[in-house]
Structure formats: C-alpha cells, structure tokens
Amino acid sequence: MDDPDPPVLFIPNDPFFRELFSRHVHDPEACVIHDRASERSVTPYHFLVDILQTSDWIHRTLGLGEQTPNSDNVFVCVLVSYGYEYAVTVFALRALGLTAVPVCKYYSSMNPTIFQNTVSRPLHLVPNLTCGVHGGLAEAILPEEFEHFVQVCGATSLITTTPREDHAKSLLVGISLTTLTIQLSPSIAKPWPVLRNSPQVPKPWDPDRGAILLFTSGTSGPPKGVLHTHQSVYTGAKEYLETYRLTRNDRTLLPWNSHWCAGFMMLSGCILAGAYAEICPTVFSPAWFWERIKAAEITYLHLTPGLLGPAIEWYAREITHQSLQDVEEYLAGLKRLRTLITGSIAVPASVANFWIDKGVRVDLHYGSTECWMITGTDWREFRKFTPVGILNLI
C-alpha cells in the first residue's frame, strides 16, 4: 500500500509566522522554545505544525465557518499555565484572528476598566483581574470573578489543559461556555505535514483586530485590562528586539509569567527574532540560574531586581566559597552574557554594579501595559538619561 500524501499546512500572512517559517527554512534544526517544565525542545517546524494544527482544531471545534468574523473581537479565555502549551495556544488563536484572554494566574481588585491600545476610547468593561508583577501570584481566579468576567467581556469559549480541567469545571458552574482541552503530542504524527506559503492571495493580516487582553499591575492605580491589537504586539516585539539587538544567535531565560505584559512581550520578541527561549518559571531559582550561567549558553537576560537580588545573595553565600576553579567557571559563563535588562521597579545601584563589575552591560527598562516599552537606558548613562531605544507609541 502506498504511503498517504502528507498534509499541507499554509503559513498565515502574519510577520510572526513568516519569521518562524524563515527560521525553519534557513536553520531547520534550531530550537526556538525549550520548556523546562517538560524538558521539551521544539524546532521552528515543530512549533509551526503544533500552532497550525491546533488552530485548525480550534476552528473546527468552535464551528467558526469559512472565515473568522471581521467586525467584533472574539474573546477566548486561556486557562493554560505558562509553558509550551501556552505559547501554542496563544499563537494558534492569533492565526485565527481571535483574542486570547489569559485567566490562569490572576487575583482580583476593584473598578473594572478596559482600554484598547492605540485607541483612547474604552471598549468594554472587564473585571480587574491582575497578575502579580514581582511575585506573590495567586494561582487561580475565583468562580465569581470568572463569572463576572464572562458577562462583561463577552468571552465565548475557554481553552484549558488536562491538569487544569477540574479548575475549569469549577469556574464553569452555571456558565455556558464552549470548553476545549488542548493536548499536544510530544512528537508529530507521520506523514509529517508540509509547510508552504499560500499559493493564493493570502488573507489580509488585520492589524487592528485584538490579539491579547492583558492587565496592568495596579502599582500606579486600579488595574486595567488592555486590549492589544495585532499591530501593537508586532510593533512592541519588533521595537524590543531591535532596541536590545536580540537575534537568532541569542539564548535567554523566560521565568516571568507571560500572562503579564513584560513576559508576553519577551516571548513575542524572542519568537519574532528567532532566538532560543527557555521558558522556566517552574524551575527558576538562584541555584538553577547560576548553573545555567555556568553552562556558558545564556547570552541575554531580562530579569527584575526581585529575581536578581536573590541570585546575587546566592553567589555571595554559595559560590564565592567554592574552589577558585569553580568560581572561574561561573565567571567564564558570565562572559557569554552580553546584556542584562532590568527595571520595572527601582533598581538598587548595588544590583546593577554587581553585574557591571563582572563585565556585563546593564540596561534599565521601563514600560507599561498600555504601550509595551517606553524606554531602555544604559545604566552607566542613567544620570544623563540617554536612551538606547524609545518605543514608537502607536
């Protein structure tokens, strides 16, 4: 019997997918995401296949028809922990033109408001569910919060994973939502799909559709839900990677929650740049961090002072008392680290100087959920406030 013809998957007309496809063509063995929770490493091909097959599955399950509606945004709640499955889910929704609404690690506040990035007028009311910025994350949204959320933002469905099915059921008591449970296979079934650019005129990429709904930290006022358009996400990621010169040759750690603005921006920037991203919130600790540095593979980092402080303390307490040879191995690994980004809150001089004294460039990064990055500034020039990059607010 002849082998069946492989299925053909067409690349969406979207800059993120075009970059992934280009990465696949020019460096098919490259790793774009390494999920440290499952130790799953995926190539651009594997990532694209999972995204496009998941996109097709969502399309068929939700009965979207031939085309995604072009008028109103369609909100889909995402109850998926940060990791590879989260990345696949969010970008599968992007491929369909649907709006991802992460609802995994939020806690509530008061005074719901939502604004669309690039548009001054409010669009909808949503509950103030906000993700902790510097730690102290609540693990689950409460049922009453979720019910209110569904009512005011008009979410039509929820995507979750098998480990979170019980939590999803508890949220959906008395609520009628279509629920999908994503299950990704560790390997791609044969015959392996063929990736191609569409031979026909591709469906126009709609930059004004909502891509993701994220929430502010609440540090400067009541938390707000911010609806980022496809153009906003693309521009923010592009400015980020260009400002910090993120390339396909870089390897970085992503311990932040991608349900928070900065975490999602870093994930998006890495994908757009084709960099090697290690998603590691479940394993990140000072000891683990220094072992990754010692391996001399990490070239770029973006970490808050809240993560850098314990790492410095660990170095002083545990590493400086090791043999000279061991200490030199850690310092040799640091030489691979060309840039360290920190900020979001006040950065103590002692934190920045620790890395600068070891030859690492330190940049201060500040931004907001409403407009991604505002400025990146070389720490050595911070008193003069000489920015290395400022986001084009759109």
From TrEMBL:
For molecular function, the Gene Ontology terms on record are: medium-chain fatty acid-CoA ligase activity
Which Gene Ontology BP terms does the record give? fatty acid metabolic process
Give the PROSITE patterns listed for this entry: AMP_BINDING
Where the record annotates domain AMP-dependent synthetase/ligase, the positions are 142-381
- Transmembrane region positions? none
InterPro entries documented for this protein: AMP-binding_CS, AMP-dep_synth/lig_dom, ANL_N_sf
Q: Which family does it belong to?
A: Belongs to the ATP-dependent AMP-binding enzyme family.
Protein name as annotated: AMP-dependent synthetase/ligase domain-containing protein
Q: Which organism is it from?
A: Heterodermia speciosa
